[in-house]
Amino acid sequence: MKLPPLEALRYFEVVARHLSFTQAADELCVSQSAVSQKILLLENRLGYKLFHRKPRQLTLSREGSELLRHVILAFDQLQQAMQHISDIQQIRSIDLYCMPSMASCWLMPYLQDLYVSCPEISLNLVVDTCEPNFRDDAIDVALCHGYGDMPSMLKQFLLHDYIYSVVSKTLFEKYDCDLERCLQQIPLLHDSLPQPLLGGNGLYIMVKILIHKQDIVTTAQI
């Protein structure tokens, strides 16, 4: 059996709720005769009466009561679906810039908490070693390292960084576990060196060099 038009079911639900053609017509902003005609056409299509019509009294038939229960559930589900779709469309999208080292070593552990606490936010992570360009790259927020000397930007301090001396065990033992002697005689790598290899993402690269080479001393900011 084909479903009747949605409009006809809507008319039926309103009439059944008010048990009055007049009040239903007022809610639907149509004439009483239009409501009566719509219900009559629906009954003819279904093949059974939905209402018992008596002078100054309108009651639901057994079939009408059963249909009303399902119509209410269907309209509720339809309303929930439309609300869900509307909520999805209203999810805010934020483009967040971050250097690869900060993204992998600091940011990633916090992302799950962000998704749980703010499910309405869609985060687009922009990972790059170049300085963020808010004007051309459509970046909303940037996690940057520096002194905060950007007068045109709204800034929020997150955390301090610290400088540590890091040396492989093999090299440390080579200098009789004398850290001061080791630091004085071995070239140091800094993330502030001008070489393109290190650049603004030098910390991450230097740690990788230390792990793989195992013979380099580095002072790094973390």
TrEMBL record:
Every HTH lysR-type domain range: 4-61
One Gene Ontology term from the biological process aspect of the record: DNA-templated transcription
Family annotation (InterPro entries): LysR-type_TF_proteobact-type, LysR_HTH_N, LysR_subst-bd, WH-like_DNA-bd_sf, WH_DNA-bd_sf
Recorded superkingdom: Bacteria
Keyword DNA-binding: yes
SUPFAM superfamilies, sorted: Periplasmic binding protein-like II (SSF53850), Winged helix' DNA-binding domain (SSF46785)
Keywords, in A-Z order: DNA-binding, Transcription, Transcription regulation
Coiled coil: none
GO molecular function terms attached to this record: DNA-binding transcription factor activity; sequence-specific DNA binding
Family in the record: Belongs to the LysR transcriptional regulatory family.
PANTHER family per record: HTH-TYPE TRANSCRIPTIONAL REGULATOR, HTH-TYPE TRANSCRIPTIONAL REGULATOR DSDC
Protein name: HTH lysR-type domain-containing protein
Taxonomic lineage of the native organism: Bacteria, Pseudomonadati, Pseudomonadota, Gammaproteobacteria, Pasteurellales
